[in-house]
Amino acid sequence: VLAAGVAYGLLHLAALLLLPRPASAPVRAVLGHLALFGPPALAALAAAHAARSSRGSEKAFWLLLGSASTAYAAAEMLLALPAVWPAAARLRGAAHLGDETLVVFLLVALLVRPDRPRAPHEVRSAVLEWVVAAVGGYFLVAYCAMRPPGAAGDPWFLAVTAPAALPGLWALALAFRVKDPPFRRVYGLLALGFCAGAVLGAWPRWLYAQGQHEAHGPWDLASLLPFFSIAAAALGPRGPAWVGSRRPAVGDRGRARLAVLALAVPPLIDLASRAAGVQPSLAEARTDLTLACSSVLSLLVALRVYQTGRPSAAHDAAEPAGGRPPLAEASEYLQFASGLAHELNNPLMAVAGWAELALRRGGPEPSLQPLVEATGTAAAAVGRLQQLVRSGRSAGEPR
Amino acid sequence: VRPRATPGGLALGAAAFAALYYAVARGPGADLRTDLLLLAPPVLALSWLLRASREPGRAKWFWRLLALGPLLWLAGEALWSLADYEGRAPRFFGDRATGFPLGTDLFFIGFLVPMIGAVGLRPHPRSLRRDRVALADTALVFVALSFVFLRIVFLPLITAEGTHSRSFVLGGLAFALAAWTATLWRRVEEPRWRRTYGAVCLFAVLYGTLSAVANGLGHEMLPPGGPADAGWFVPFFLLAAATTTPRARVTRRLSSAAVVLAAGPAPLVLDRVLGRALPSLGLAVSPQPILLLVTSALLAVGCAARLLVEERLDEEAQARERAADEAARRAGRLGTLAALSAGLVEELERATDEVARQARSAAPFMGAKAERVVDQAERARGIVRELSAAFRLVPSRSRQPVDVGRALEDTVRAVLDEGLPLRVSLEGTGQLPEVMGDPGALGAAFLSVVRNAAQASPGGVLRIGAATDGREVVLRFRDDGPGVPAEIRPRIFDPFFTTRRVGEGVGLGLTQAHFVARDHGGSVGLEPSGEGACFVFRFPARERRAMRPVPDAWALSGAALLSAAMATSLALMSPNAGRAWWAFQFQVGAALLAAAALAAAGLRHRGRARRFWLFLAAGPALWAVARMLGLGALEGSRPSGVWAYLVSAAGELAWAAALLLRPDLKPERGASARSLLGAGAALCCFAYFYMYLVVLPWPFSEGEAVLGQHVALGRGLVRAALALWAFVLSRRVASGHWRIAFGRLALVFVAWAAGQTAADYGRTVTGFAGGTPADLGWIVPYLLLAAVALAESRRRWRPEPHFASYRPFPFGAAASLASVALLPAFDALAGSSGHPALDAARDDLTAFAVVALGALLALRELARDRGVGASAATGAADASQQVLPRLVANAVYELGGQLSGIAALARLLLAQRDLPGRAREDARRIRRRGDSGLRLASNVIAAMRGTSGPRDFVSVNLTVQEVIGERSADLGEEDIRLQASLSEAVPPLSVNVTALRQAVLSCVDAAAVDLRAAGGGATIEVVTAVEDDQVLVGVRHGEGATARATRIASGDLDPGLGLAREIVSQLGGTLVGGSRALGGLELWIRLPVPRPVASSAARRGPAAGAGSA
Q1: Over the stretch B242-287, which tens digit does the pLDDT of each residue have?
Q2: Which residue of B lies nearest to A385 if distances are taken between CA atoms?
Q3: What span, in angstroms and rounded, lies between the C-alpha atoms of B785 and B591?
Q4: β-pairing, B460-469 with B435-437?
């Protein structure tokens, strides 16, 4: 798939270079958009194919990747349309929305973590977390995309690239952290595609900021790279199918982290941008966006907190609560008896030894005899104890 | 006493009143009528508060002081109505020329003063909720309150023209009241007091904000009839509601979801509402986006902290439940064990009693060693007695109320007097409810756990914490040993389960602890803890002790009252009327009061503690002297003379020195030089920063505002460092008493750093004019300090037994070295000040400080090397030597368990009728191998436990007989018979019983191995004899090949024999063996005979008893 991608890219470049520039502008536009339409469509088909044969969170993962590709492909179609049907130019806004959606969908897809199966009771809160991530992602995209009207040459335009780098970095982190080989491969491929795409994507933005942007050029490869990696990951061998909860239910450790990320980070970003004095004319609008976003996020986080509540006792009992087998009690008793015999034996032997010594040295002494006898009785009691232990040990054997 | 009226009724009343008020306000001549109408709500509140003041105790004074508030407000309102009647009511609140007459302002601001004093009394029963969720809630509420007051009151006042000290002080008092009651509201457990504090908090918030709005936020007052007028009557209905009792008897924790839902959008919504409402009232208020963002972020962090704390609590609760489950299971098991063994223990008790009695009566005939015989007999009896006591087979009848804390202290004191290698810290033993029980048994149970800790980590630290949890007394024993491995966790309470070597203990202590706890209706268990083991006792408290309110509340209440009164009077005085003079009096008075209170607290203590409090007292005293030296301040100029500044610097150094004194530690012998040098280094650091930031730049800041502000901030930094140090101490100190003291001091230091820095800074900003409300930053912290010191001097201080424990700071040496490097780095980072002379002086100071600090630290390391190094090294080696055998023993123990399982499985197979012959043969072989492996494992364990045990005179023949008794049944099944031929001439030997027994056992086992290989079916003969001052124990048989016998005798085939050889050589003898001439094997243990017997044997001649060898 990657080789096909390289060939496709070269073909695309050749076609663009061969076409004379001013004369064939509409043709170039249509051709460029069509060339940009192909790989996302391929990635969408491949992801849909992968989703068909998987279950659970893995299915969700592929579906999200597929939707991201579909949204991008649709956006390219919408952008190509005005060349043949001028009325479609009104749909440009929708097309850009599809463009931005890509980042958000990729982020959420990576949060799904198909390598980490979830128990059924965890799924609902996980879905809510994905929604939180989606809202947060849209906030980031919208926050960075804000720019003063008519400022084409604004160097801050590069900031728009920042959110695009997030999925790549996250996939890279996952590729290093996940040990499961198939998923590691999937994350590695995605990281490669997303990171390369994000880095290359800075090029057209930079040109745009300088006012030298052209509609289509070699930088189009930046948009294509992620889709080839998605297609390669979806068509390659995949991880084991989702089989249900393989891990014990984890405690609800994620809530506090989620609350900090979702509630504290947007105001902090806005504070930082205010402190840095970035585009003061936009500060008010940005703060409004931040606060509105925080309110929505706090609603979602509250829902998430409410949903989990306290972890129920049903998931807690990892070990069976049944009683112990009677054999175990018997063996404990035997252990106890053997310990007792062991402890008593030492002083009794010592007493016997001393008494014998005295008897030997002093000849038969009437008052020593009872001591020897008493020691003998005690030793006999201990002996019975040991007998009990021995008989208990061989209890299972046929006589 | 409290009326049962519902808040609903009051709300209805408030709504009806509001309707009436606004109807009247629409009519003509509204001013006077509304004035008169506003007299009604305070009267209502006053009457309800007075009715509530029939409550007994301190609550009476609380309600009376609280009632003083509406009374004063009524007076103010009456004066106001009079002014309105005469048509001279002002249009501005505050300091303008057309402002209120003094009397009205006195009442309208001052009415909050007694209310703050009332809250200071804190009359609620004492059990503050200790959970950290309440703490997070408090922080959240504090952030929210700060936002509300900043947004509505303070920021508009700051941006408004002119000074508005009266409005500021009114808002500040309301904020203080609201914040304090909010803290109490979230932390108090009892529902009715929660309602009281919550209602007062709402009162303060509503009054503070709405009245500020109605007063025009620094502009012209709003005309009557506006929505902000609700601030004049709604709060008083809330004050009435504070006296009611809620229906619910328990308070539930707020759901985190609700908190997040409220905290997320609340600032935004409030901001937007205000942004629309205030302009519609004609008040221009600028938006505050930064405040909004900061509040949002802080609230988010607070919510996250709350969630985190809640998760921790849930986890802890789960762990507790699991521990309770385990305890219940264990109780069943051990109960069965005790019941099963009751008869056995009784029989053994009789037998050992008899032995002991006979031993005592035979003692006169036994010569010099009689004592030891009696000792051993008593020991046997003691073990059985201990067992009987551990099982509590005879539960004690005498039940009496026991002060658990006292019992614990007595136990610990006794243990430490015994010289147990342990450092113990006790906390919270002073305030425990009583438990019905048997003090002796409780002491024994505590003793066993303390012993256990001493054995787990010799020389370590045991922290014992006592607390009440609901109706239970909870005692936690936390040691810093290696902890209890998970696999033996369920078994450590079993009798005779011990991981120690013989002679260190029998393994009954924890069993006894279990049964004692059960006898008292409680439980004992292990709780998970970070490091070491944590044993937890829980006993039901005898009764819920009538909980008394917080002690020493009067001091704090007085300080709050005084602070509020001073603030009010400063706000009311006009700048021309000697306000600066009064402010100066207040400052010096507060400082001297604090110094006197600290000195009084010092005189109540002895030793280091006295020095600590007296050093602390020197701080405010020197500060007051410095203020008096700088009297020039009153004329509006800066304090003249460098003396004032040096004296005040000496005061701050005294504070630092006090904190470095560590009054919680007993002076340790040998370590005093080291700790003195360490404290000197720390003081050197502190002095460096103080000189660098404050003293040196001071002369240069004349007429230069920026440098003056830097000096003020630098002072604040140094003081904040002191506060941080006090806080760290409050977290690390072992003693509960000092923990509280340091915690309070840390709070006061924070107030001191913040308040005085604000005051200093404020003066550099506004020019040097005394008497502004910023001066409160110099007054309030000293009043708080005086309150803390007064409380300290009144606190009943029971000296807790011993506090030798504090954890050494990790990376201490590295940190101290880093501090040397820190000073030049700080100097480099600070950069140039713009004054060459100052820079040069700072460079010199840095060089001098580095040399001094380096020398001090080097000396300290030298002292440490001399004192501690050697002992620490040996200690580590000891520890590693102890750990390995224990690990090996555990491993072998596990191995034995596995082998016994294998043998049992083989037995099960053998029990099946239809087993084919071949398989039967295999099973038999497996069983034999399993059994012999098991024997080997048990030999190893016994050897490891036994060889180093105490020596005693042991009857060799009895030992041999016992060994034969032990093995004959097992070997009999394999057709191997055991036969003894014992010589009467064999004297007892001075050896360890277990070791001797083990050596003989190993020899028998080795012979059995040989016989088994030869096909079995023979006799092993065990003989004893005396030869040449040596006792011989021989094990031999006459079957099998010579070659194998030789190999066995050399220990090749049976590692048990190697073990036996090791044991015998430790006993001073030899083990030799080999093949016999006619086939078979013989093994001989030769042990030296003790001296007196040896001489008699020598007299009898060398040939006596020879031959068999």
Answers
A1: 988 887 666 667 788 888 888 888 888 888 888 888 888 878 778 8
A2: B344
A3: 9
A4: unpaired
Q: Give the H/E segment covering residue A16.
A: helix A2-18
The answer, for A399 touching chain B at a CB cutoff of 8 Å, is no
Q: Are A224 and A9 in contact (CB under 8 A)?
A: yes
Task: For residue B287, give how far its alpha carbon lies from the nearest alpha carbon of chain A (Å).
Answer: 10
Rounded Cα–Cα distance for residues B578 and B584 (Å): 10
Each residue of A317-358: pLDDT tens digit? 444 444 444 445 566 666 677 777 777 777 777 777 777 766
Q: Do A385 and B344 touch (CB under 8 A)?
A: yes
CA angle, B305 then B306 then B309, to 5°: 85
The reply to whether residue B377 touches residue A385, judged by beta carbons under 8 angstroms, is no
Backbone angles phi, psi at B38, to 5 degrees: -70, -5
Mean of pLDDT values over A175-186: 81
Nearest 10 degrees: CA dihedral of B1059, B1060, B1062, B1064? Answer: 170
> Contact A374/B351, CB-based, under 8 Å?
yes
Most B CBs within 10 Å, among A331, A357, A369, A389, to test the B interface: A357
Element (H, E) at B1075: strand B1070-1075
Question: Tokens 């006042």 map to which residue?
Answer: B157
Query: Cα(B957)–Cα(B981) distance, rounded to whole angstroms?
Result: 9
What is the reported pLDDT for A396? Answer: 42
Residues of A whose CB is below 8 A from B988? 353-354, 356-357
Q: What value does the mean pLDDT of chain B take? A: 79
Which residue is it, tokens 């996939």?
A: A171
Does the predicted TM-score (pTM) go above 0.90? no
pLDDT top residue among B1106 and A11: A11
Q: What does DSSP say about strands B1018-1027 and B1070-1075: parallel, antiparallel, or unpaired?
A: unpaired
CA-CA distance, B133 to B352, in Å (whole number)? 58
DSSP alpha helix (H) spans, B917-1054: 917-946, 956-972, 993-1014, 1042-1049
Q: How far apart are CA B272 and CA B265, in angstroms?
A: 11
- Top residue of A343, A372, A390 to mutate, by most chain B CBs within 10 Å, is A343
List CB contacts (< 8 A) between A302 and chain B: 257-258, 260-261, 264
Phi, psi at residue B989, to the nearest 5°? -115, 150
Contact A291 B268 (CB under 8 A): yes
Q: Which residues contact B433 (CB under 8 A, 6 or more apart)?
A: B468, B473, B541, B542, B543, B544, B545
Q: Which of residues 525-544 of B touch A (CB under 8 A)?
A: none
Contact B261 A291 (CB under 8 A): no
Q: Which two tokens stand for residue A45?
A: 């088909």
DSSP run (H or E) holding B436: strand B435-437
Q: What is the DSSP track for B315-355?
A: HHHHHHHHHHHHHHHHHHHHHHHHHHTHHHHHHHHHHHHHH
| DSSP 8-class letter at B1077 | T
Helix count (H) and strand count (E) of chain A? 13, 0
Q: What residues of chain A lie within 8 A of the CB of B502, using their CB?
A: 346
Residues counted in chain B: 1109
List, as one string, the DSSP characters of B465-520.
EEEEETTEEEEEEEE-SS---GGGGGGTTSTT---SPTTS--S-HHHHHHHHHHHT
Could you tell me how far CA A89 lies from the centroid of its own chain? 40
User: How many C-alpha atoms does B893 have within 13 Å on its Cβ side?
Assistant: 15
Please report, as a single letter, which amino acid is at residue B944.
M
Provide CB contacts within 8 A for B812, sequence distance 6+.
none
DSSP states of A269-324: HHHHHHHHT--GGGHHHHHHHHHHHHHHHHHHHHHHHHHH-SPPGGGT--S--PPP
